[in-house]
Amino acid sequence: MRHVRWILTAAVLCGSSAWAVTPMPMAQQQAGSNPSGVDLAGIDHSVKPGDDFDGYANGTWRKTAVIPADRASTGIFLQVFEKAEQRNAELIKAAAANKAPTGSNERKIADYYAAYMDQASIDAHGLRPLRPQLRRIDAIRTRSDLASVLGSQLRADVDPINATNFSTEHLFGLFVTQGLEDPSHNVAYLLQGGLGMPNRDYYLDPDKDMAGFRTKYQVYIATQLEEAGVVDADAKAKAIFDLETKIAKAQESLVDSEDVHKANNPWSMADFASKAPGLDWVAYFHAAGLDTQKQIVAWQPRAITGLATLVASEPLDTWKAYLAFHTINHSAGMLPKAFADASFEFYGHTLQGTPKQRDRWKRAIGAVNNDLGDAVGQIYVKKYFPASSKAQVQQMVSNILAAFADRVDALDWMTPATKQKAKAKIATVRVGVGYPETWRNYADLEIRPDDAVGNHLRAEEHEYQHQLGKLGQPVDKGEWWMTPQTVNAVNLPLQNALNFPAAILEAPFFDPKADAAANYGSIGAVIGHEISHSFDNTGADFDADGRMANWWTPEDEAHFKAAGQKLVAQYSAYEPLPGLHINGQQTLGENIADVSGLTISWLAYHKSLGGKQAPVIDGLTGDQRFFLAFAQSWREKTRDAALRAQVISDGHSPGNFRAETVRNLDAWYDAFSPKPGEKLYLAPKDRVKIW
C-alpha cells in the first residue's frame, strides 16, 4: 500500500451446506503436515464462494464477532495490534521498574508514560502548558503577526499514509523527502491543511449524516471554548466553523491530491508572494525555519493560493479564535478530563460510532509510541522479533520479487523496452524487514514525568527539527517511515523502498509454523501488494531511482490505464452502505496493488513448491488454503459511522471488498469453481489483469 491501513478482524464457528468447497478425502492428506493456517470454524458453508467469497470465508466468524466498546471495528488487525499493545505495555512498565538513568531512552519512555497517566497533575495544570501559545495568539495585531504565528505552528507530516492530505489543525503541513525530479537530495513539500474534521467532504457533502456531523462539530467547538473560559463561545464557534468551511472549499480533493503530476510545483520564495498573495510568506517561512530554502514544492497549488487568500480576507478576530480553538483541540487528549472527554465524544463517538473511550493506559501507550517510537522499537525488536523470522520473511520477499520479474517477462501486452525498465525497478527495490538499520536519536528531547502536554509538544518540535535537518542533504534510502511496533506496511515510491515492521509479521498474517499456502495468502499478499505499489497508478510514474519519469511506451501506458479504468468501474459498483458507493478512482492505487499483489504472491507460492504438488491439509488444496487465508486476513466488522468515514476519506476499499479481489484471478476459479450467474463470476475477458 502506499499505505496499508489494516481494519481487519478475527475468527470462529463452522457449518455445512451444498455450497461448501468439497474437501479432499482425508487419505490423500499428508501425515505430519504443518497446520493449514486457515480458520475452518470461521467459514460459512451456506454461502456460495462464487456469490460472496468474503461471506464464505468469514461469514460464521462475523455472526458472533463483537466489536469492543472502545473500538470502531474489530478484526485480524485488532487481534495483532492488541498483541503488540500488550507487549509495549510490558516494555514500558519494565522501563519504569528498572529505574534507568536520567537521559536514557528507557527513562524518557517511563517518564512520558508516567506523565500521561498522572491525571491529577494534568487536571491541576489546566491550560497552563498552552498559555505561551495562547498568549502569542492573543497578541496578534497585524496580518504579519498572524503569518508568524501560522508559521511557528507548521509541523512535519511523517505519516506516508496521509502525506498528501494533511488535514490537521495547522493551516499547512510539511513533508520532507527526496525531490520528484532530483532523487539525490531532500526537498520540502508544502501541503494543504487547516480542518478540524477528517477532510473537506465533511464540510461540503450534502448527505444528511454529514450535515449532522457539521452541526455537532460546531457544538463541540463551542464546548471546548467554554471549558477554556472563552467569552461568546457560541458566536466564535460559528465563525470558526464558517472559516473552516471556506478552507474546505479551497482544498483539493483526495483524488486530485494523489495525482503526482499535479504536485510537481517547485516555487521560489518570490513565487509564493505572486502566486499565493494574501499571506506574508516572508514572515511565515521565517517563523517556520524555512527562510533559507530557495524553493519549496507546492503540492496543491490551487489550495495554497486559496488558503493564502483567506488569511487576508477573513477577520483577524476570527483567525485568533480559530487558532485558539485548534491549539486546545490539538492537545485535548492530554488536557484535563473535561477537554479529553469532549474530544472523544465528538471524534470517537460521533464520527466513528465508538461507544466507549479507550482505557487511559492504552491511550498512553499510543502516545509513547507516537512520540518516542524508535526508542520503544529498539527494545521491542530485541525481545519479540527473532532473527529466524526476519530471515524467513526476507526469503518470501525475495521469492515474490523474483515472481514479479518472471511475471513481467510473461506479459503479452508489454513491449520489451518497458519490460526492461520495469525489471530494473524490481532489481533495485530496497526492502526493510522488521526494523530500520539506524534509529532516531532522542538525546536532546526533554521529557518530564509531570508534563504530559509539554512532552508531546516538545516531541513534535523535535521531530520537526529532525525533518528540517534533512533539507538539502543527500537522501537516506534506508530511512524508515514506520516504527517496528506498528501493525502496518508501506511502499515508498520516491525511495523505491518497502517497510515491513516487526509487529505485522505475526500470526495470523505470518506464522513461521504454518503451511506455506497460508503465509503466502496472507503476509505474502501484503508483500506482493507493497511491491505492486511500485507499479500502481502512482508508483508507475517513478523510475528505479525514485525519479518522476515516464518509462512507458505510449501503447503500454494506454493498456495500463485502460485496465485501471476497468478496476475503477468494478469497485465503484460496490455499495458498503445504502446509497454510499466506493470511489473506484480514489481507491484505484490500492485496488491495483491488491489484484497484482495477490497474483504475484500466488505465483511465488507455486514457485516455492519446487515443482511438487501442494499437500492437502484439513481437506483443502494448497490453492484453496491460499485464497481462504487471503480473504480471512481481510475479515472485519466495522461500525457504520467508521465505515462511512473510511469510504469517504481513505484510499483503501473496506476489507470485505478487498477479499473479493479473488474474482480477478483465474486460479481462484479453478480452486472454487464459481459458475456463470453467481455474483462474483467474471467472464475471462472481464477479469482485470495488470501485472
Describe this structure in words.
This protein is of the alpha/beta class and 691 residues long. It folds into two domains: 33-81 and 377-436 and 484-686, Collagenase (Catalytic Domain), CATH 3.40.390.10; 142-315, Neutral endopeptidase , domain2 (Neutral endopeptidase, domain 2, Orthogonal Bundle). The chain contains 27 helices and ten strands. It has helices at 53-64, 76-97, 105-117, 119-125, 131-138, 143-152, 201-204, 208-227, 233-250, 254-257, 269-275, 281-288, 301-313, 316-330, 337-352, 360-371, 373-384, 387-410, 416-428, 452-470, 516-532, 554-572, 588-608, 622-633, 640-649, 655-659, 666-672; strands spanning 73-75, 155-156, 172-178, 186-192, 266-268, 295-298, 430-434, 490-492, 497-501, 636-638. The strands form three sheets. The chain has a five-stranded mixed beta sheet. It has a three-stranded mixed beta sheet with strand order 7-9-8, with helices on one face. The model is unreliable at 1-34 and 160-167 (pLDDT under 50).
